[in-house]
Write a structure and sequence with these properties.
The chain is of the alpha+beta class. It has ten helices and 17 strands.
């Protein structure tokens, strides 16, 4: 890692030399370590250290973006020149107003020394524990354990200076025995909260319970979705409608819905980068402070997220949700949190006369964006529930369903939220979920 002082020295060097009306420098620097395993053996163990510098130049409403992973003096001069050259030769964006001016940023606790120091031997020991648990049920495992220790900074010619060190860690695993499989995962900033034996036990038990799976007819079923399955679906809503660009272009499911009942009264969704169970982030890629944005409250459509560009168009302030300067999607929620309820998965099962328990989905794709209709497949632990008990495992099913419709049919919400790829969600029970094949 470069450290705060060196990062801003590099940023200032670029800003001082760039020939543009306005300019912005974004620097990511750090170390990423990954241990992968398959057939209960480690087959890949890598550590990568890199520094990535991106420069956005503005020349009379013309914008250019250039990047490099070199930071010697010649490279800094070259990237400043390239960004300005690209800007001068780009078509003007007449809707562009300005890069943002600085705003106060509240620091967050985003770095954990234990994670930063979690080395290859530590990852190997964790993997060995996973293998041992899976062997008890006759399963082999595949998956990964990754940790990162990095720093992120933004500086611009209007005075923005934002810096944050952060650690991230996650582990995913599949326990398998022939056609039977089970899945478990863990995400967090602090590796000391990770229990490899616990996730191995969950995945291994699902694998054992998935043996001798049977086919069932497609149709509409009550579903009990565990948190990874909920996150698989809820995560699409950020792309399909919670961002200001889609809303302003009239293609968001939130269009003409503000203040109206959109989903069930028991559903509240927000974007909160400072939730204690999220990966805390103080600011976005423009250096604007992250704001908590209530997207849906008690089923009523309440808000969308903004970057500085889309906020200026609506006469609002950025909520701190800018994405990559070259992105065509505009601002996006990156820390979606769905409010919990008061039930356990066991209570959901016990209350279900006939339904399907789903661990997670995969191969998910959008069919109708504005109706939020998705299709995908169940995977790694799908079970038929009858008479309030799990009866047997079922073969993979394809679903074709509207996420909003599902959220209108939620009957129970889990008391425990879990983090999965940026989405913090509880388990849920919903009626009339459509399995198409």
């Amino acid at each position: 890692m470069l450290g705060k002082d060196q990062i801003f020295t590099l940023s200032d060097e670029i800003l001082k030399n760039i020939e543009a009306d306005q300019a912005e420098v974004i620097i990511n620097s750090g170390k990423y370590s990954l241990t992968r395993f398959a057939e209960s053996k480690i087959h890949q163990n890598i550590t990568e250290s890199d520094t990535h510098i991106m420069v956005r130049a503005v020349c009379d409403k013309r914008i250019g973006v250039a990047s490099t992973n070199r930071y010697d003096k010649a490279a800094l001069a070259d990237i400043a020149k390239q960004a300005a050259l690209l800007a001068r030769n780009s078509a003007p964006n007449n809707e562009f107003t300005s890069l943002p001016s600085p705003k106060p940023i509240t620091p967050v606790e985003s770095h954990c020394e234990a994670t930063a120091n979690f080395g290859p031997e530590d990852r190997a020991k964790a993997a060995a524990k996973i293998f041992a648990i899976a062997r008890k049920v006759g399963a082999i495992t595949s998956g990964s354990l990754a940790v990162s220790d990095g720093e992120f900074a933004v500086a611009n010619s209007l005075g923005v200076r934002a810096y944050q060190p952060a650690t991230h860690s996650h582990s995913i695993m599949i326990a398998a025995d022939g056609d039977a499989s089970g899945y478990a995962e863990w995400f967090g900033k602090d590796i000391t909260a990770f229990d490899p034996e616990q996730i191995a036990a969950v995945a291994s038990q699902k694998c054992a319970d998935s043996r001798n799976e049977k086919a069932i007819e497609p149709g509409q079923y009550t579903v009990i979705l565990e948190p990874p399955a909920v996150a698989d679906l809820i995560g699409f809503l950020g792309w399909l409608g919670f961002g200001a660009t889609g809303y302003q272009e009239g293609r968001s499911f939130m269009c003409n819905q503000m203040g109206k009942q959109l989903v069930g009264e028991n559903i509240t969704i927000c974007d909160d980068a400072n939730h204690p169970l999220q990966m805390p982030t103080a600011f976005d890629i423009e250096g604007m402070p992250k704001q908590k944005v209530v997207l849906i409250k008690n089923g009523i459509a309440k808000g969308i997220v903004y970057d500085s560009h889309t906020a200026a168009k609506d006469g609002k302030e950025s909520t701190g949700h800018a994405t990559h300067p070259s992105s065509i999607y505009g601002p996006m929620p990156g820390h979606v949190c769905m409010a919990a309820g008061d039930k356990s998965v066991e209570e959901m099962i016990a209350s279900t006369e006939r339904g399907i328990l789903v661990t997670r989905f995969h191969y998910n794709n959008v069919i109708s964006p504005k109706e939020t209709i998705l299709t995908g497949m169940t995977r790694d632990g799908t079970f038929l529930v009858e008479g309030g008990k799990i009866k047997h495992a079922v073969q993979k099913l394809r679903f074709t369903e509207s996420v909003l419709k599902m959220l209108r049919n939620v009957e129970m919400l889990g008391a425990e939220q879990k983090l999965s790829a940026g989405c913090l969600t509880p388990a849920l029970k919903a009626a009339n979920f459509n399995f198409s094949s």
